[in-house]
Amino acid sequence: AQSVTQLGSHVSVSEGALVLLRCNYSSSVPPYLFWYVQYPNQGLQLLLKYTTGATLVKGINGFEAEFKKSETSFHLTKPSAHMSDAAEYFCAVTDSWGKLQFGAGTQVVVTP
Amino acid sequence: NAGVTQTPKFRVLKTGQSMTLLCAQDMNHEYMYWYRQDPGMGLRLIHYSVGEGTTAKGEVPDGYNVSRLKKQNFLLGLESAAPSQTSVYFCASSTLNFLDRGSYTFGSGTRLTVV
Questions:
Q1: Does B10 touch chain A (CB under 8 A)?
Q2: Which residues make Cβ contacts (< 8 Å) with residue A91, sequence separation at least 6?
Q3: Cα separation of B64 and A103, whole Å?
Q4: pLDDT in tens, A34-47
Q5: A46 vs B contacts (CB less than 8 Å)
Q6: Per-residue pLDDT tens for A42-63?
Q7: N or C end of chain B: which has fewer CB within 10 A?
């Protein structure tokens, strides 16, 4: 069975500071891993994904994530936070049939 | 290019009432999903469909029914609403391409309150 654990339900960062959101997964099959972002009162949008190959993947809006198999992690980073990054972020893993299993989410607040 | 459209966007129901949430996609996607989102619990899969005329149960199917009579539409029904079904409901769709698995397009959600 697949599962995802996101460390920290709320993260507060200063504008211009590093954004680091932590995600650990468990999977019985080689995982496809995802980060989705949800802006207020909107649906989820795909931020980036890891399938196979390069373990450092780049997404939209300057975000990137690194797949570390030995640590079963897929942490999301952005070097410099912007006010527009305030949103909820979800890490997810696919099961063997391709259905997504989501983490509980991390709410990001950006302070001036 | 509307993507995934959910109707209605908001609804208040009384306990015991029934309603249907409609999801429509215009991307010719084979797979469609219904999730519910509750604070601190992420998104949980209610039901899904891998093609027209087929549906399957997800993680939290009790109290819900679904139908997929047309490829582009996926309906979620609540037969007898309960306060525990107060939630935000999201529909999503994805292609049949196995390499694209997990890359979903989401609707903007339906906020349902059961009083």
A1: no
A2: A4, A6, A21, A23, A25, A33, A34, A35, A74, A76, A102, A103
A3: 23
A4: 999 999 989 999 99
A5: 103-104
A6: 999 999 999 988 899 999 999 9
A7: N
